[in-house]
Design brief:
The protein is mainly alpha-helical. It contains five helices and no strands. The radius of gyration is 15 Å and the shape is globular.
């Protein structure tokens, strides 16, 4: 979610393609809603969440900020598609193998949101710009 929140700050400063506005706003709103919930859950359960982004995600943020190609909206959509695919895999893994009921419930509740947003992101990509 840290990546989503940071990416949202970049994309909202630039021009957003009208056909992608709803997907961008939904993803950004969901990240802003779920981040504090996940942080609170982690604190209650005594889990430390990572605070630093992996290098590849830092690189994507730099690209969004300085030289998005082919444009900011498409770059954001592509990055978010990858981010959501990874998050879905993590949530599915938690449902299969997790031992903490609170985290499993969070995964169960969050999975439909991630899947809905992934479908919106894919649909918002202009023709010929698939990831």
């Amino acid at each position: 979610m840290n990546f989503d929140l940071d990416a949202c700050s970049f994309v909202r400063r630039g021009p957003i393609e009208p056909t992608a506005r709803a997907a961008v706003e939904q993803v950004c709103a969901d990240a802003a809603t779920y981040a504090p919930r996940l942080q609170a859950l982690a604190a209650r359960e005594g889990v430390r969440l990572p605070t630093a982004l992996p290098f590849d995600l830092k690189e994507k943020l730099v690209s969004l900020n300085y030289h998005p190609q082919p444009n900011l909206t498409v770059e954001f959509l592509r990055d978010e598609i990858g981010s959501h695919e990874s998050a879905i895999a993590v949530f599915q893994g938690e449902l299969r193998e997790g031992r903490n009921q609170a985290f499993q419930q969070t995964a169960r509740d969050g999975l439909p949101v991630l899947e809905r947003n992934l479908a919106m992101l894919r649909a918002a990509l202009p023709p010929g710009m698939a990831e």
